Amino acid sequence: MKINKTNVARLLDKAKIAYQLVPYEVDENDLSATHVAAQLGEDVAQVFKTLVLHGDKSGYFVCVVPGADEVDLKKAAKISGNKSCEMVPVKELLPLTGYIRGGCSPIGMKKHFPTYIHQTALEFDKIYVSAGQRGLQIQVSPADLIREARATVSDITQ
Known about the structure:
The protein is an alpha/beta fold. 24% of the residues lie in helices and 28% in strands. It has 5 helices and 8 strands; from the N terminus they run αβαββαβαβββαβ. Strands 4-2-3-5-8 form a 5-stranded mixed sheet. The termini are far apart. The mean pLDDT is 95.
């Protein structure tokens, strides 16, 4: 099966970062990272989801967390310099980031937003994040992802 390179893959190529594109079966009724992990045959702790939030002071920011975890809005607000924050409504995701739900990657959004990645990413040699479309993940080293996404490592889950 020919896998078309996504914008994310092209950006990683440009940055000379090693990665692997890994396809999986999409279930429109279950876009969860848990489903993705099961499809990949990987531990859900290694499959990260990219969430876009809006803070009352800083505006938009991105949290990259393990698939089965939820963002702790209080921790996320504090770490991003906000008093409060909330998840961005799904309908705002595409115009804001260029990505759809289930295919949102921390790399290659329309513009760069402050990005926070959960500290457990550093426990693995490789982690998975969306390649920018449903049905395709990128396997990459956490250090490379953190550098390319200019992310801050922090504890942002419940």
